[in-house]
Sequence to fold (482 residues):
Amino acid sequence: MNLSISWPLWLLCVLLSAGCVSADTIEQPLTLPDGSRYSGELREGLLSGEGRLEWPNGDAYEGEFANGMMHGKGTLSMATGDIYQGDFIAGRFTGEGSDTGSDGTEYQGEFVDYDFTGEGQLTTADGDIYIGDFTAGVLDGQGTFTGTDGSYYAGEFVDGAYEGYGIWHNDQWRYTGEFAMGYFDGFGERVDVASGEVMESGEWQFGQFVGEREPVNKAERRRQQLAIENALFNQPERLRETLNTLAPSEPGQVDLFALIGAGDGTQKVFSLESQTIAGFLQHELVAPGHLITLSNFPGTMDSEPLLTLSNLQQAVQALAERMQPEDVLLLYLTSHGSAEHEFALDAPGHRFVGITPQDLVDALTPLADNPKVLMVSACYSGGFIEALKAPQHLVMTAARADRTSFGCGDADTMTYFGRAYFEKALPDSASFIEAFSAAQKYIETWEDEQDVEHSEPQIFVGAEVEAALNTLGKSPATDHAH
Fold:
């Protein structure tokens, strides 16, 4: 529904041939040389200010003009039934606006020269919903799809098709992994939604499961290492681009912002987990422009900044500049962890400085007073709790300070902690705190099945955080009354 209107630019001098017209406002419609009729304001003989222009073919524009052209806010009603409403620049529909099509399709968001280009939401006549980055009328970048058939996808798009990393699910099963040309293609896992049972995990081609992937060979490992090297050189630009996508808090309500980080890039599991959680949050809890991801996996180097201590610090600072004091931050970090309580930051061929509990405390300083949900999924991650304790903090970790956690093998797509909390518990829980108790039970069951020592996930609930979390989505004024 991207119309290309090619009216001649005689509007710039349309009234020059009617030199006798000198009034500032034309109340009775003036018939122009091509048969169009105009009523409204004039400046120096040109259409400028508020007015209405009707074309012989039935098209009509009502709104602001400048220098003889549609310019400013206005509504363009086409004879075909399409209606454009929003910003016009130099005669073209460019900026923020909406497009309601005669076929029932609706788009709300950014335009460039009548095309859907930028952030937006497209609802088809059938009720399917696309949200994300559009280019020339189709999703191209990060986005989501919600189908009337109950299907849902969150991840990367190329030319309107699923391409890259993403999560697709319906009421029966969920696929997490790589896509190509709209198909499951590459490494991925299909899981039964009801039972949580892994149905297939490994290599897919054009939607068909073909078996377990062969171990990474030396040539592939070298390619991954080169990708890391290139990413290091491009990091300032990549980080800047990502942080520029953050949107400010919505005035008048308490918003949830999220920062998701995958620390160990030598295994795909942490990247897949972070993408799965990001997709869930974007679909259920976090508004567009309020979530960013950092990852050390080679496959995401072109789209996500690295998770390093420096990048984490800069990301928190950028969030602080866009959040109100009442807004809530959800931080989820997933990786391996050491018995010395250091969160691992690794990539193929490169080991970054790990994150200690005090490092994380210092990184969060710009948001010191904001309510936070802080989650660390790693072995021995309970060692982070003491340092992170604060009245406005809810802290959850995948294990005790002296225990390992599970679900981080090469064949896994999520850790036990991430899967139990975000896929099993949180969707059916009334609060973040309630979800932790439910997740504990799932983890204990899975660990019993594997006959391993229980990881014993830990939680700390600050004295003020539960009340603060209950204000999400409400106005600060209303919250204080409670």
Remarks:
- Residues 171 and 310 are 40 Å apart (CA to CA).
- The radius of gyration is 27 Å.
- The first strand starts at residue 25 and ends at 31.
- The chain has nine helices and 25 strands.
